[in-house]
Design brief:
This protein has 421 residues and is of the alpha/beta class. It has 2 domains: 146 residues, Aspartate Aminotransferase, domain 1; 254 residues, Aspartate Aminotransferase, domain 2 (3-Layer(aba) Sandwich). It is 37% helix and 12% strand. A 7-stranded mixed β-sheet has the order 2-8-7-6-5-3-4, with helices on both faces. Helix 2 packs antiparallel against helix 10, helix 5 runs parallel beside helix 6 and helix 11 packs parallel to helix 13. The protein is globular, with a radius of gyration of 22 Å. The model has no long low-confidence stretch (mean pLDDT 97). It binds pyridoxal-5'-phosphate. Pyridoxal-5'-phosphate binds next to helix 5 and helix 6.
């Protein structure tokens, strides 16, 4: 049996332990409440915590750059999307300078890069996506396919263990233009091999558009092996609710790709206010309109924290935290079935468990201070974000769940799911 003392020992040896203090806790004044009744937030993969440095960084942009600098601050703001993109590229994504842009939402960036990819593969009439991918990805693929009279081929992944290379090989042929895939699956956390899948697709002449939403800031990503990618900054990157997303386009492809929204921020010599759209060079051609300057300031703070901690250390801790969770579920909660890959190198920094009353259990947990996610149809998803979750937090969360199950405390809760889960 793994004891609470064992978990404490893991915390004592944790090289990232100090990063917790970079984030706002739940106690008075944002201090960390380490008491037995404290909240245990295991949903950093849905909305990351607030970095302590963010309010001041945003306030500085508001008060100095906007308040005093006014329109003159645009000289500085026009470079922000690529400046923060470069922080992500170097520190988090394994990309080169000038390959990452912070802009728009993940859904919009998916649309832009998918359209660009389709345009770069004329004559091909099939798009591939995963039947179990996050809804927005499937909806965007379906919409683009409809617009072009293309067919969608859905790969049927194992919901718990994810896609295999054979699954992908089976749907590739010379009709496929673009494959849209999540590197880390949103429900199970299952991870695929980015380089191997990209190579398979390239060999058949297709592009892969990676969605890194659950991967960025939780696992090591090497985009030097990829062509196109998008992802969120409000999950493991702690950029805040509604923070702009990022997009990545391999340098060698940028000049040959056209995005569908011809906005003035993607225009060559933007302030010439010329008569016709002519996309600028570089990754900025995938920009559209005036960027969210305030929100991007918050993204920069979060991105710099992950870059400073280093993705190898963050990913290693993510594997160790989820390994502990899997071990404790095995030891103490036989009523639950693991709904994620067992091998830690095959998953991101979250795991799911299955139980017929998962929604009721989720509500009972939230009332006992443990915040996971419920995911359809019957999964509880735990995302112990490596930068601020301790091993003892995972231990206590499982302990509270064991109490709920032992006392049937979840049974009085409604079995009907609420609108936001
Ligand atoms: C969270 C998530 C999104 C969110 O897209 P938004 O446009 O930010 O709402 C998209 N795709 C995946 C795989 C996600 O996990």
């Amino acid at each position: 049996m793994t004891t609470r003392e064992d978990a404490r020992g893991l915390d004592d040896a944790d090289p990232l332990a100090g990063f917790r203090e970079r984030f706002t806790g739940d106690g008075p004044g944002g201090a960390w409440d380490d008491g037995p009744g404290r909240r245990i937030y295991l949903d950093g993969n849905s909305l990351g915590r607030l970095p302590r440095a963010t309010p001041a960084a945003v306030a500085r942009v508001v008060e100095e750059e906007w308040g005093r600098g006014l329109v003159g601050s645009w000289a500085h703001w026009v470079g922000q999307a690529t400046r923060v993109g470069d922080v992500l590229a170097a520190g988090v994504l394994g990309a080169r300078p000038g390959e990452v842009l912070v802009a728009d939402s993940t859904s919009v960036n998916l649309y832009k890069l998918l359209q660009a990819g389709v345009g770069a593969r004329p004559g091909r009439d099939v798009l591939v996506c995963c039947a179990d991918d996050f809804p927005t990805d499937r909806y965007v693929v379906a919409g683009v396919a409809e617009q072009h009279g293309m067919t969608v081929r859905e790969v049927a992944a194992d919901v718990d263990t994810g896609l295999t290379l054979d699954d992908i090989t089976a749907v590739l042929d010379d009709r496929v233009a673009v494959v849209v895939l999540s590197l880390v699956a949103y429900r199970s956390g299952a991870m695929v091999d980015l380089a191997a899948v990209t190579e398979l697709a390239r060999a058949s002449g297709a592009l892969v558009l990676w969605d890194l939403s659950h991967a960025v800031g939780s696992v090591e990503v090497d985009l030097s092996a990829a062509d196109l990618a998008v992802g969120c900054t409000y999950k493991h990157l702690n950029g805040g609710p509604g923070a702009p997303a990022f997009l990545y386009v391999r340098r060698e492809l940028q000049g040959s790709l056209r995005q569908p929204i011809q906005g003035w921020f993607g225009q060559r010599d933007q302030f010439a206010m010329g008569p016709a759209y002519e996309p600028t060079d570089g990754v900025e051609r995938f920009a559209v309109g005036t960027p969210p300057v305030l929100a991007t300031a918050a993204v920069e703070v979060g991105a710099r924290i992950s870059a400073e901690a280093g993705m190898p250390a963050i990913a290693a801790k993510g594997r160790a935290l989820t390994d502990l969770l899997v071990t404790l579920v095995d030891e103490r909660l036989p009523q639950l079935r693991l709904a994620s890959p067992r091998e830690s190198d095959r998953r991101g920094a979250h795991v799911s468990v299955e139980h017929p009353q998962a929604w009721q259990l989720t509500q009972a947990l939230v009332d006992r201070g443990v915040v996971p996610d419920f995911r359809t149809p019957d999964r509880i998803r735990f995302g112990p974000a490596p930068l601020y979750t301790r091993f003892v937090d995972v231990w206590d969360a499982v302990d509270r769940l064991a109490d709920v199950l032992a006392s049937d405390a979840h049974l009085p809760y409604s079995a009907t799911r609420s609108r936001v889960t």
